[in-house]
């Protein structure tokens, strides 16, 4: 069973649009394999990857120091990604997020570059709709002097295929 997270309403197509909007739903589920670049002081219990998707305002993934941090998601079946929702801790955000994806057995290719604000607010990004089995989000330019990134919520939305 997949985890359901509340998604904000998205504007629909214009009245003259020829194609109906596809349903948007959270794509991360219990069977999605998640990896992260690092965890602060290797304290997985308090700062591990599981906190990216737990829906709690009290928990977060906190990376350790480093020039580039990342999260990879291996979905149990193909998905069409169309949105990324992310909530950083202000002062520990990323100025540049690079999204790469691929189908099983293929090499990662760049999908989008996003430029989040250094804010604690939930930030929502439309991304080029891409069918993939694996998604990598690289946080390339941390606002923290030591390169740490703190993420309270990560939402990948789109359509399960």
Question: Summarize this, please?
Answer:
With 161 residues, the protein is an all-beta fold. 2% of the residues lie in helices and 42% in strands. Strand 5 and strand 6 form a beta hairpin.
**What is the subunit organization of this protein?**
single chain
Shape: globular
Q: For the report, how would you describe the main beta sheet?
A: 8 strands, antiparallel
Q: Tally the helices.
A: 1
Q: Compute the average pLDDT.
A: 89
Distance between the termini: 15 Å
Low-confidence stretches: 1-18
What fraction, in percent, of the residue positions are helical?
A: under 10%
By DSSP, the count of extended strands is: 8
Helix and strand element order: EEHEEEEEE
Structural class: mainly beta
Strand content bin: 35-45%
């Amino acid at each position: 069973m997949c985890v359901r997270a509340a998604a904000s309403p998205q504007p629909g197509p214009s009245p003259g649009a020829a194609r109906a909007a596809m349903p948007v739903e959270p794509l991360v589920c219990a069977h999605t394999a998640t990896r992260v670049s690092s965890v602060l002081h290797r304290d997985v219990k308090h700062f591990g990857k599981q906190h990216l998707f737990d829906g709690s305002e009290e928990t977060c993934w906190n990376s350790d120091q480093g020039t580039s941090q990342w999260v990879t998601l291996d979905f149990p079946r193909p998905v069409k990604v169309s949105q990324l929702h992310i909530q950083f801790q202000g002062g520990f955000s990323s100025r540049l997020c690079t999204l790469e994806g691929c189908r099983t057995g293929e090499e990662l290719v760049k999908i989008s570059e996003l430029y989040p604000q250094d804010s604690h607010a939930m930030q929502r990004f439309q991304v080029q709709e891409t069918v993939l089995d694996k998604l990598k989000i690289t946080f390339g330019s941390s606002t923290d002097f030591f390169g740490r990134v703190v993420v309270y919520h990560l939402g990948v939305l789109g359509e399960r295929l």
